[in-house]
Structure formats: C-alpha cells, structure tokens
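[audit] Reproducing an earlier prediction to check determinism. Same input, same settings, fresh worker. If the tokens differ from the archived copy the diff job will pick it up downstream; this log only records the rerun itself.
[audit] input (256 residues):
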Amino acid sequence: MTLVDSQPNSQEIKIAATAIIEDGVEIGPGTSIGEYSIIRSGTRIGAGNIIGPHVIIGEAPQDTSYRSETSYVEIGDYNIIREFSSIHKATGEGEVTKLGNNNFLMVNSHLGHNSVVGNNTTMANNACLGGHVSVEDQVTIGGSSVVHQHCRLGKHMMLAGQSASNHDLLPFMVYVGTPACSVSTNRVGLKRNGISQKALSELMRAYKIIYGAERLSHDNMMSKLENELEQLDEVKYLINFIKESKRGIARGVYRK
C-alpha cells in the first residue's frame, strides 16, 4: 500500500483498523476508509474521498472472460462511496474501471468492470451499472435502477428510480421505467447548472423532434435536428452523442 502525501500539510489518511488494504494500493491525502472495507491490489484512490464501511473496491470482475490479467480501478478526488458499494476492476490486460471526481455513490451501488463514470454524478441506493457502461458528468441515477452493459448515459440526464435501460440515454433528458422511456428534458437540473434559457428552449425542440408523436425515422430525425435547430453547443453535443451511439438510443415515451 502506498499513501500518497505530496503536500507537507495535507490532510491525514484515515483507515479503520478492520479494513483490509492489499499491497499495490495507492491512497491520496485526506481519504478515509471505513470499517471492514476491502481495497484490492491495483486500486488507485485520489484525495479527500470518504469510503464507508463494508465497501469493496478492486474485486475481480463478474466476467467469464476474465483470466486474472493485471487490471485496475482508478478513483479521483472527493467522492463519497457509502456502505456495501462495490467497484470491480476491469477485464483486459492493463484496462481500468474509472470513477471521476465529486461523485456520490449511495448504499449498495455497483460499478461493473470497465465502467467509466465522470464527475458530479449521483447513484442512489442499489443503482447498478453493468460492464463497460459510460456515464458522463452531472448524471443522476435513481435507486434500484439498472443499466445494461455497453450503454452510455449522457451528461445532465436523469434516470428515475426502479428503471432499467439497455439502450443509450441522451444527455439533458429524463427517463423512467423498464425499459427506460423518455419523460422530458431535465429542465430543473439544467437550470441549476446554468444552462441558458435559449439552450433550454432548443433542447425542448430537440426533445419534440426525437420523441414527438410523429415518430420520425432515424434519418429524418437527424435531418431535422441538424437543419431546424439553432446549432448551440448543447444541441451539437446532443447530435454528436446520437451519431456515436452503438447500442442505439432509447426511443420509448413514458405515458401515464
């Protein structure tokens, strides 16, 4: 175990007496690790993290193709990882499961192998990410929600509790149900994060093109997004996200 303390006056690293920290673990300044947590070799943890009791980080992936190759978990700074959460190391020689900065993983959250989570994301109790899931910044994943392997969750989107998705979920949107269906734009979250009124209006127009009653073909949908909307940064980001989708985007619409 390596305690990374690059600043002479940095905060103390606190590790509970009953925690198990294997050799080959790096822990940054100001991080605390709770009772009975297990941190496996190949885990790198940044500064100021709060890791609760009974957390398991760096355990072998739940993947039948894993052959005990050397792989890693990388955790950034100032994350809160609550009790009984688990983050598995990656499958593939030298591959990494990543958690960025300022994320909040509530009780019993799970990050599957090779998942990549950005910054300022919240995963509520029992939220589960399959292997190779990509989660961008400022995402909210509700309690007991499940995301299928290889899916992508775009920035500033929200997945409601007890939902499940096997498709990509678009940035700036809200989804609910199993399979996850669209509700609207994440208007409240976007306002809180300083998105302009102009961008809010164009994103709502985009939502109506993608999820409106007309049910456009993919090509017609993309044509309208590119030709009928003002190409603000947020709109361009949304369009590129769709273009880069490999699993396809969720196209269902939630109806009460």
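[audit] rerun output stored. Observation attached for the diff report: Residues 76 and 199 are 30 Å apart (CA to CA).
[audit] end
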